[in-house]
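User: Hi! I have a protein structure encoded as tokens and I'd like to know what sequence might fold into it. I'm fairly new to this, so please keep things simple.
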């Protein structure tokens, strides 16, 4: 741009156009185009050029927005979001430990005796008591729709990093394997209990 060019501006209301329009005449006083007049029309009702730029979407990314897929090639594949639908809620690890040192009692205030774990059930976890194992086992039997087998990780793995190896869907006990002999012994106990009940009802 030539710095020697001087411009004189003159703006007046334009009566030939609706109210609010102005006519600006720009007279060039020097340079090659000296003496020429440029005419511009302005309206106060119109927006400036900067405001005519389409607005940028500033919606937070957490909200789902419709997206138009433009396919430029037949082999283009669209990735589908697999997180839609019902999702499993996260579970707190070692939630059973919040119930430690809490005892059940009668209405009179007398505490009930603790339940003793069978010999084949062994606690697994950081400072897990037998009563904590019973609470987690009872919860698993009532809530889970899958077999209750216990933790599959070894005791050494739990000692290294318990939160990394724990299965929150299983009770805090070592994995157990129920044999045919165990089932047979349990059936015998059930039959004995039934006979005792029948004899008691006859009296």
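Assistant: Happy to help. Inverse folding works backwards from shape to sequence: for each of the 203 positions I chose a residue that suits the local structure. Here it is:
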């Amino acid at each position: 741009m030539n710095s020697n060019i001087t411009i004189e501006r003159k703006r007046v209301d334009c009566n030939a156009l609706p109210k609010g329009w102005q006519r600006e005449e720009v007279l060039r006083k020097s340079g090659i185009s000296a003496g020429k007049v440029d005419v511009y029309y302005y309206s106060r009702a119109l927006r400036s050029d900067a405001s005519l730029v389409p607005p940028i979407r500033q919606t937070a990314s957490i909200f789902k927005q419709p997206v138009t897929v433009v396919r430029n090639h037949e082999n283009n594949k669209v990735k589908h979001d697999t997180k839609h639908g019902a999702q499993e809620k996260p579970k707190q690890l070692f939630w059973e430990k919040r119930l430690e040192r809490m005892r059940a009692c009668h209405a009179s205030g007398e505490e009930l005796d603790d339940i003793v774990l069978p010999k084949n059930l062994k606690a697994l976890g950081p400072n897990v008591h037998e009563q904590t194992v019973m609470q987690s086992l009872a919860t698993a039997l009532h809530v889970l729709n899958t077999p209750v087998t216990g933790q599959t990780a070894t005791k050494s793995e739990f000692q290294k990093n318990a939160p990394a190896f724990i299965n929150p869907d299983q009770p805090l006990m070592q994995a157990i394997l129920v044999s045919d002999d165990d089932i047979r012994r349990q059936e015998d106990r059930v039959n004995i209990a039934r006979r005792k009940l029948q004899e008691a009802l006859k009296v």
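A useful reference point when you look it over: The mean pLDDT is 77. Feel free to ask if any position seems puzzling.
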